[in-house]
Amino acid sequence: MDLRLQGKSTIKKMFIGIAVLFIVALVYLLRAQKETQVQNTAIYINEVCPENLSVVKNSRKEFPKGWVELYNAGEETVSLKDYCLSDSEKYSADRTLPETELAPGEYAFIFLDDDPEMIKEAKENGEICLALRLDDRKAATLCLLDAEGRLIDRMEIPAGVKINMSYGRDAEGKGSCQPMACTPGTANAAARPDALENLAVPELS
Question: Which secondary structure element, helix H or strand E, spans residue 128, and what is its range?
Answer without folding.
Answer: none
